[in-house]
Amino acid sequence: MSTLVNCPKCRVEIESDSYYCDQCGVELYICPQCHVFGKGKRCTQCGQPLVSAANQVVSPVHPSTSSVNSSAFSVSPASSEPEKTMRPGVSVSPLPVRLVCSAAGIRLGLGNGAVIGRRKGDYVSAFASQGYVSGTHARLQKSASGQWEIVDLDSTNGTFVNGNRLSPNVPAVFSIGDIVRIANLDFKVE
């Protein structure tokens, strides 16, 4: 369960695992050292350059485990999976971290339970002007085995993985290098 923090621009309370403000649509930036949201190019507390929350794996810091203020975050490396012991001849595929649509200039950091939609969801500001994307189009999630999945939420123009249209409410696994199509937008999985 995510905690609530204030958007640095409009000051409205939003969920701490957001990449964009649900109200004003501003992209959120975080200090990699202080772990607080900020606006501008540098952190007002330590002077470090701010980084896009969409390019980070961000999880809330619980008040019981930290003395930092309530808008604090813990920024983890791209893979938060437990370290695996490697055996000769066994390879472990890296997990995807983002979906990139070069044609529309959209980069989506993956978030477990994140909803993709033009009117509702975690990426509204990225899709607000995309008329073929449904208001609530699809959801990203991790399977029990830790693989990334996308679920079509009964969208009008469909969700596809490598050209295969998904049935509504049926998860489909995707991996690095796959193409995920949301309506008329092709996203490469990175």
How would the blueprint of this fold be written?
Elements: E1 4-6, E2 13-15, E3 29-30, E4 37-38, E5 51-52, E6 57-60, E7 73-76, E8 98-101, E9 106-109, E10 115-116, H1 124-127, E11 138-142, E12 148-152, E13 159-161, E14 164-165, E15 172-173, E16 179-182, E17 185-189
Antiparallel strand pairs: 1-2, 3-4, 3-5, 6-7, 8-9, 8-17, 10-11, 11-12, 12-15, 13-14, 13-16, 16-17
What does this structure look like?
By secondary structure, this protein is mainly beta. The protein is 2% helix and 29% strand. The strands form five sheets. Strands 9-8-17-16-13-14 form a six-stranded antiparallel β-sheet, with no helix packed on it. Strands 10-11-12-15 form a four-stranded antiparallel β-sheet, with no helix packed on it. The chain has a three-stranded antiparallel β-sheet with strand order 4-3-5, with no helix packed on it. A hairpin with a 6-residue loop joins β3 and β4 (37-38).
